[in-house]
């Protein structure tokens, strides 16, 4: 780093006791002389050959070698001689002899006299100077500089090759160039960091030095280290920026290719194995268990599809992100990939949804069919059991239950038809593209099965309806039979009540003929009511017989109802006849008595015959006798009209009237007795 008085660089060659390799020395000199600029070289070199620890022959060889290595650049060679001086004559003679041939001046000088030719500040401490110099530190920094220069130059070539390869040629050549030269041999970030650290050292105008010591400040225009580093750094930054863009483009292209590859994987699976899975699943099952098994299989298929749909969602998000931040040249390709992926996924999802809905509809259809079949079985079982009701109410309840079951079957069949039609509509809407093949044959089997189930249920329901009609008619006849029996028994009760009323309340015989005639007319009407009741009962019992014959059964109550009815009617008839006889006798009695009692005494000729009085007396006595006589029935039983007090009252009234007639008779006899005496 020191300079001579002509501003020429000083080159120091220290020699040692060991054997010095001239080849190594020559290589070292070539390297050192390659560092300065041409301008510095033109000013020449002052070479200091430190021979204090070496032999003369070695020194001479080194000096002669300088002629071959740097003959033009060397202006002065200072050979520092040892304390034990060589043979002056020999040394002087040799250098003097070779002066013209060497082309530069060679002087022998002791170390303390070297300052005559070179300023002390340009000499190191080894030669009595003050120039601070740390050779190991210089060497380390020089190695760093050389390494940076080598790596940066190599890196620049690599980056230029990569960048230039990406800038020109076809897309295929570009991709091939990037693939072959994409990764540099060294890390650009590391090289840039090394360059910046080195530049920082150079900008401080020092390589290093002892802490607190005087810095060594080389001239930039001589060593050219700082300008070279800055130029290399600028070039590196430029190429590295282009390289990063190339990496970004390649990363984007790689990402695009990966997305395209994944998209094709999803598309190929959905259109391949995924569609094949759906092609093999076309049936709907023939029962609930079969439909559930198909649903479970379909869920497994959906589970496999869901994994690919998850990939689709992820890819769609990635494509959307690239579309938001992508270049114009990638938008068309990205949108095409997105559209292709969406079309395939949505089409496959639609097929899965269609299949799921179809299986759900089939399950509902078979569930309704099974419920309807169970209802028909229950209705048939109910119809197969013979009816043995206890009364009409139980028959009505059974008939109501039968009607409810039939109505439930009707509703079930209607629901089955609705479910079946809905399922048929779904099957008919199943286009050939849904599974990628013609599904007419498979659909025909499904359609035939559905229609077969509905027809079978319709036939079973029709058979049950026919049986219900027969059972309904039979039960209605039984209801009518029980009703006739109940009404016939009621007629007997009514007739018994009429008989009881006749005996207990129809006891008055009237106070005169007119009243008695009114009572007689009322009695005839009363008898007409009883006759109607009796006829109604007879008709009901005749209907009971007809219904029993139709039902082929024996009535429980009609066997004793008819004898009871006839017995009560017979008793009523006998009682009624007795009542009529008494009323008619009372009419005759009252009419005769009233006729006699109302005639005037001035007409005695009207009473000439006393037989009328006797007849009235006979009728009255006969009536009184009947009042005391009970009504005797065919079974030997007896019944009285009213109570004894009632009969006594009626008899008393008759006796009073008989007294009036008797008194009238006496009055008429008295005038007859007086006439002969006069």
Question: Which structural traits does this protein have?
Answer:
phosphatidylinositol-3-phosphate binding; 18 helices; phosphatidylinositol-3,5-bisphosphate binding; SEC14 domain and spectrin repeat-containing protein 1; mainly alpha; four-stranded parallel β-sheet; phosphatidylinositol-4,5-bisphosphate binding; 678 residues; two-stranded antiparallel ribbon
What does this protein look like?
The chain is mainly alpha-helical and about 675 residues long. Helices cover about 75% and strands about 5% of the residues. The chain has helices at about 20-35, 40, 55-70, 90-95, 100, 135-165, 170-180, 190-205, 220-225, 225-280, 290-325, 330-385, 390-430, 440-505, 515-550, 560-600, 610-630, 645-675, and strands spanning about 10-15, 45-50, 75-80, 105-110, 630, 640. The protein has a four-stranded parallel β-sheet. Helix 3 (about 55-70) links the parallel strand 2 (about 45-50) and strand 3 (about 75-80). Helix 10 packs parallel to helix 12 (about 330-385). The longest helix has about 60 residues, at about 440-505. The radius of gyration is 75 Å and the shape is rod-shaped. Residues about 175-180, about 205-215 and about 430-435 have low confidence and may be disordered. This is SEC14 domain and spectrin repeat-containing protein 1. It comes from Spheniscus mendiculus (Galapagos penguin). Belongs to the SOLO family. Keywords: Repeat. InterPro entries: CRAL-TRIO_dom, Spectrin_SESTD1.
């Amino acid at each position: 780093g020191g300079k001579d008085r002509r501003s020429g660089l000083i080159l120091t060659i220290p020699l040692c006791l060991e054997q010095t390799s001239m080849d190594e020395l020559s290589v070292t000199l070539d390297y050192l002389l390659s560092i300065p600029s041409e301008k510095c070289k033109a000013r020449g070199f002052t070479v200091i050959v430190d021979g204090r620890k070496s032999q003369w022959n070695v020194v001479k060889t080194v000096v002669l070698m300088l002629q071959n290595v740097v003959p033009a650049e060397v202006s002065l060679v200072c050979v520092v001689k040892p304390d034990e001086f060589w043979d002056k004559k020999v040394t002087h003679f040799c250098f003097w002899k070779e002066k013209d041939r060497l082309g530069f001046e060679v002087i022998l000088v002791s170390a303390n006299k070297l300052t005559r030719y070179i300023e002390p500040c340009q000499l190191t401490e080894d030669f009595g100077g003050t120039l601070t110099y740390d050779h190991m530190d210089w060497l380390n920094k020089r190695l760093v500089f050389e390494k940076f220069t080598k790596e940066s130059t190599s890196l620049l070539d690599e980056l230029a090759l990569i960048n230039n390869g990406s800038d020109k040629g076809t897309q295929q050549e570009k991709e091939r160039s990037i693939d072959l030269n994409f990764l540099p041999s060294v890390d650009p970030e590391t090289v840039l960091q090394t360059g910046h650290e080195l530049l920082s050292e150079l900008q401080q105008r020092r390589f290093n030095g002892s802490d607190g010591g005087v810095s060594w400040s080389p001239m930039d225009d001589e060593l050219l280290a700082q300008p070279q580093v800055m130029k290399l750094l600028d070039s590196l930054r430029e190429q590295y920026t282009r390289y990063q863009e190339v990496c970004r483009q390649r990363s984007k292209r790689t990402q695009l290719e990966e997305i395209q590859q994944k998209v094709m994987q999803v598309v190929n699976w959905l259109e391949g194995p995924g569609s094949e899975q759906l092609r093999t699943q076309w049936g709907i099952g023939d029962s609930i268990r079969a439909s559930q098994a198909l649903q479970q299989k379909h869920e497994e298929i959906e589970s496999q599809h869901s994994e690919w749909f998850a990939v689709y969602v992820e890819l769609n998000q990635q494509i959307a992100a690239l579309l938001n931040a992508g270049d114009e040249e990638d938008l068309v390709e990205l949108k095409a990939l997105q559209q292709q992926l969406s079309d395939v996924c949505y089409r496959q999802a639609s097929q899965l949804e269609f299949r799921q809905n179809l299986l759900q509809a089939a399950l509902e259809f078979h569930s309704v069919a099974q419920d309807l079949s169970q209802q028909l079985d229950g209705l048939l079982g109910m119809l197969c059991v013979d009816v043995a009701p206890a009364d009409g109410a139980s028959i009505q309840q059974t008939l109501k239950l039968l009607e409810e079951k039939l109505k439930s079957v009707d509703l079930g069949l209607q629901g089955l038809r609705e479910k079946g039609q809905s399922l048929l509509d779904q099957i008919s809407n199943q286009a050939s593209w849904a599974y990628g093949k013609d599904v007419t044959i498979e659909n025909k089997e499904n359609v035939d099965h559905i229609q077969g189930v509905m027809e079978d249920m319709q036939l079973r329901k029709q058979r049950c309806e026919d049986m219900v009609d027969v059972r309904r008619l039979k039960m209605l006849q039984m209801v009518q039979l029980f009703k006739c029996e109940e009404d016939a028994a009621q007629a007997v009760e009514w007739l018994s009540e009429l008989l009881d009323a006749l005996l207990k309340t129809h006891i008055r015989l009237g106070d005169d003929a007119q009243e008695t005639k009114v009572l007689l007319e009322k009695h005839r009407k009363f008898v007409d009511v009883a006759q109607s009741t009796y006829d109604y009962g007879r008709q009901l019992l005749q209907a009971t017989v007809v219904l029993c014959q139709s039902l082929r059964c024996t009535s429980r109550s009609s066997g004793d109802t008819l004898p009871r009815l006839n017995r009560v009617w017979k008793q009523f008839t006998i009682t009624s006849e007795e009542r009529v006889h008494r009323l008619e006798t009372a009419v005759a009695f009252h009419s005769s008595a009233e006729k006699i009692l109302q005639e005037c005494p001035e007409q005695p000729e009207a009473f000439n015959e006393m037989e009328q009085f006797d007849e009235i007396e006979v009728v009255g006595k006969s009536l009184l006798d009947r009042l005391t006589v009970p009504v005797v029935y065919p079974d030997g039983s007896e019944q009285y009209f009213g109570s004894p007090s009632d009969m006594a009252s009626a008899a008393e009234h008759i006796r009073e009237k008989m007294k009036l007639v008797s008194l009238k008779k006496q009055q008429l006899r008295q005038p007859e007795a007086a006439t002969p005496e006069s």
